[in-house]
Amino acid sequence: MNTRTDKKSGKVSVAVIARNEEATIGEVVSGVLPFADEILVIDGNSADRTRELAEGLGAKVFIDGGGGKGDGIRKAIEVASGDILVFIDADGSHDPREIPALVAPVLAGEANLVVGSRWTGGSDELFGDIGKFIRSTGSSIITLSINYRWHVKLTDSQNGFRAISVRAARAIKLEEDIFTIEQEMIMKCLKQGFIVSEAPTHEYRRKVGESQILVWKVWHKYVWCLLKNLVK
């Protein structure tokens, strides 16, 4: 039974992993302000004004090592000064007003990691064409595998909108470089006895551009990440 949790003093760091998101970074940082003690923008070497705009709104900006989203997440874990670290996407697809629902179980000592569930909160991005069907089906298979392996009842293992205690985040030693880091984070928390739960959150259609996830190019990395963490 997973019991490794403890109450937190409540300082919240919010990390926005961004690359070339000048069209939305201002809105995201402004939306996060009421819910954060510090805002971290982890920039993946943007060629636009992402860093400048974020700094102008008071965010602390750090440059990651160029290794993808996973590299940005590890950088955020390294530099966060809060007790709880919230990850929110830079494209405007998440509602900052849902941050308290993610943070509350960690504050209460009921969970170490709380993932926003699009299956219970709804999504404008996961359904509607064959590519989204393949993506949502693959996500469901991964989540079911995690559930059966660790006897949990999660619905969403891939959503990047989540809150984790900094203690747990630093203990699990994340290694993945791409979006697979999100399922890795869940599996490593479960393996080390940390408590993982969910809260309903809605995923909105990104306001500018298209998703950077090309499933047909990286599906094998999701499978390999799943298998190696299931059996280790």
Give a structural overview.
The chain has 232 residues and is α/β, with parallel strands linked by helices. It has a single domain (12-231), classed as Spore Coat Polysaccharide Biosynthesis Protein SpsA, Chain A, CATH 3.90.550. Helix content is 41%, strand content 16%. It contains nine helices and seven strands; from the N terminus they run βαβαβαβαβααβααβα. The protein has helices at 25-32, 50-56, 69-79, 99-107, 118-121, 130-150, 166-171, 181-191, 215-231; strands at residues 12-18, 38-43, 60-63, 84-89, 113-117, 162-165, 196-200. It has a seven-stranded mixed β-sheet with strand order 3-2-1-4-6-5-7, sandwiched between helices. α1 (25-32) links the parallel β1 (12-18) and β2. α6 (130-150) packs parallel to α8 (181-191), α6 packs parallel to α9 (215-231) and α8 (181-191) runs parallel beside α9 (215-231). The longest helix is centred in the middle third of the chain and has 21 residues, at 130-150. The model has no long low-confidence stretch (mean pLDDT 91).
